Amino acid sequence: MKKVLVLGCTGSIGTSALDIIKNMPHDFCACGLVAHTSREKTASLAKEYNCPYALTSEDNECIEKFLRQTQADIALNGIAGSAGLLPSKAVLEAGVDLALANKETVVMAWHLIEELAKKTSAKIIPVDSEHSALFQLVNKIGKENIEEAIITASGGPFRKCTKEQLASVTANDALKHPTWSMGKKITIDSATLANKGLEVIEACRLFGLAAKKVKVVVHPQSVVHSLVRTKDGMLYAQLSDPDMRHPIFSALAFPATSENYLQPFDLCGKTLAFYTPRTEDFPLLAYAYEAVERGGSCTIAYNAADEVAALAFLDGRIQFTDIAKIVRRVLDEDWSVLPQTFDDVFTIDKNARAIAEQLI
């Protein structure tokens, strides 16, 4: 039985993970639960799952001590935003395998995180549906045989909107995602294609691929999560229903491939369509490619500016199309310095956020 530490236990990722633990009690148990706030809800979950340790950011107890207490076999990081970076660092420092759903860990500080994982021999197992699919395909086919990776995007709720229509969409419109149920910020990012931009950055770093080797296709059904093209030109894909329990289970069970309670995907009756992304109307995807190619701290700036702008849109302070304009203006600054420490990462992040706020 694997002991699972769930970071972000009250969010969508954490809730899905707990569903797996509940339905597979002989395979997994919750040894620790962490939430940002919601102390009452966290305590209730700890009681429900017979979990001896629970922690919120309101408590004084540090995450390092908490990790020692739980003696976890694997930690699932489902914390949203830059707040998830230091917990990832703490998990890897403790030599615990990390099932990673926090994009910022890779986008903001991958070179530091990768070095830390190598030092402690802890595994990093992607949980995002696209990177989970790539992880499985790469492990089955062999990285040496792969020519390029292709990740899919649903296209969000505005896939068919004209450029003129995009200027007047509301936050409520943007939150109506056609296939996935996610948190508010990531749902806005899906609508702007910034989320796919972040995933391009992740794919380049997690799998050591040049930006030109990572492609994006719009696939509204969200059934094909990623594909790889082998050197002989063939495409291999991973398919499943759009349910985050599938990639979470794959990460928690790794390296095993075992039976589970989830509904197997049925291909019959399905129609799958694929389109080229409209980067002129959704430029944040193109900006992500630029950021990863420029290197330095550009991806930190991209992520910080997008987070500030997306939240400003949710608050009604800017229009939908202003999100990309703000990220563009922030990226136009000098981000050539590569951070050498985690403190450097947060300093750069803070500076980028300040510029974005000033623009708003």
The class by helix and strand makeup works out as alpha/beta
Mean pLDDT: 93
Order of helices and strands: EHEHEHEHEHEHEHHHHEEEHHHHH
Q: Roughly how many Å apart are the termini?
A: 50 Å
The percent of residues in helical segments reads: 40-55%
Name the overall outline. globular
- Count of alpha and pi helical runs: 15
The unreliable regions are: none
- Tell me the strand percentage band: 5-15%
Radius of gyration using CA atoms only: 20 Å
Say how many strands there are. 10
Strand order of the largest sheet: 3-2-1-4-5-6
Largest sheet: 6 strands, parallel
Brief descriptors of the model:
single chain, 360 residues, alpha/beta, six-stranded parallel β-sheet, four-stranded mixed β-sheet, 15% strand
Structure description:
The protein has 360 residues and is of the alpha/beta class. It is built from 15 helices and 10 strands. Helix 2 (39-48) links the parallel strand 2 (28-35) and strand 3. The longest helix is centred in the N-terminal third of the chain and has 18 residues, at 103-120. The protein is globular and about 55 Å long. The termini are far apart.
